[in-house]
Amino acid sequence: xxxxxxxxxxxxxxxxxxxxxASCLQVQGQTCYYPNGDTSPNDSPCSTxxxxxxxxxxxxxxxxxxxxxxxxYYERHxxxxxxxxxxxxxxxxxxxx
Length: 97
Description:
The protein is an alpha+beta fold. It has a domain at about 15-80. Helices cover about 25% and strands about 20% of the residues. It contains one helix and six strands; from the N terminus they run H-E-E-E-E-E-E. The strands form two sheets. The chain has a three-stranded antiparallel β-sheet with strand order 1-2-6, with no helix packed on it. A three-stranded antiparallel β-sheet has the order 3-4-5, with no helix packed on it. Strand 4 (about 65-70) and strand 5 (about 75) form a beta hairpin.
């Protein structure tokens, strides 16, 4: 039986890690905006395809809201579309902002 070298094992693992990091960077590279057009410095996109954004350690829900489990908070945060025209933006409580 052939022995696997550390190089043969490390190469596929490296490829997987690079692909994962590239997808993370794509999400982090998007800017999040409040309904008034101001940037949200503390939010990150929930998806690489844009739409809702939530703060670190908050769960992104399918309805566009953000959930902080330890406090049982539900909040609408920001969106990757500066004009909030994207159908994936959480168009809840957007008046007056």
